[in-house]
């Protein structure tokens, strides 16, 4: 696990590189879709955190030109607080998922993700499980396929193309999320482990954890304030967020949500 190359962000706690031993487990080949999450909501009546709070964060570039002014995030004004944005209204009340049933569900908090997994008979992967699965059998490479972001000029993941934040060319075919089986799978048959949407893991994020973590099935600290997210999203760009890599780490509060965060389910064997 981990990375200490020029690709990495030392402040994210990506190093040191270290070995782990993970017992066998199952993990979804694809992220959970809007269709699957809708089935969960229909069966349980679950109200997501975004629905209970009445808003969620949406990337400003996805909003219509005539969208009313909204509050931005200090230091990251491209993130807008949109009232009525939630998993079934990804860009606010004027939007829906009718043409995105096979896209990853977004605007789900860690708490929402936990609830979905419990209903579906699984759980969130640990950070170590996620990285083992995302690497697809390769070691020491930043991407599931090797060292080059776009081998022979071909796109292998859904990330921001152009000049962030206002100049997305959509060169990889997508301006927002892509269907969960877009692009080719990694060596273990997993799709879109990098790019598209961040994926929640079960661990509390600890930037110093790798220095003392156990070799056997590390599962993170017992307490914390921020939960781990892995894989990057369609908004990652080398100019500010080079976290579309198998070793990259990020995190948010367990009740937070946004238009680029989803989940992939794991399960015991």
Task: Tell me what the structure shows.
It is a single chain. The protein has 269 residues and is an alpha+beta fold. The protein contains 4 helices and 11 strands; from the N terminus they run βααβββααβββββββ. The protein has helices at residues 34-44, 49-53, 110-120, 127-135; strands spanning 25-27, 55-59, 72-73, 76-83, 162-163, 167-168, 198-204, 227-230, 249-252, 261-262, 266-268. The strands form 4 sheets. Strands 9-8-7-10 form a 4-stranded mixed sheet. A 3-stranded antiparallel sheet has the order 2-4-3. The mean pLDDT is 96.
Order of helices and strands: EHHEEEHHEEEEEEE
Main beta-sheet strand count, sense and barrel state: 4 strands, mixed
Question: So how many helices?
Answer: 4
Beta-strand content: 15-25%
**Unreliable stretches covering 5 or more consecutive residues:** none
The total of beta strands comes to 11
| Helix-strand category | alpha+beta
The strand line-up of the biggest sheet is 9-8-7-10
Q: Which of globular, elongated, flat, extended, rod-shaped describes the shape?
A: globular
Query: Roughly how many Å is the radius of gyration?
Result: 17 Å
Instruction: Determine the N-to-C terminus distance.
Output: 22 Å
How helix-rich are the residues, as a percent range?
10-25%
What is the mean pLDDT?
Answer: 96
How do the helices and strands line up, and which of them pair or pack?
Layout: E1 25-27, H1 34-44, H2 49-53, E2 55-59, E3 72-73, E4 76-83, H3 110-120, H4 127-135, E5 162-163, E6 167-168, E7 198-204, E8 227-230, E9 249-252, E10 261-262, E11 266-268
Parallel strand pairs: 7-10
Antiparallel strand pairs: 1-11, 2-4, 3-4, 5-6, 7-8, 8-9
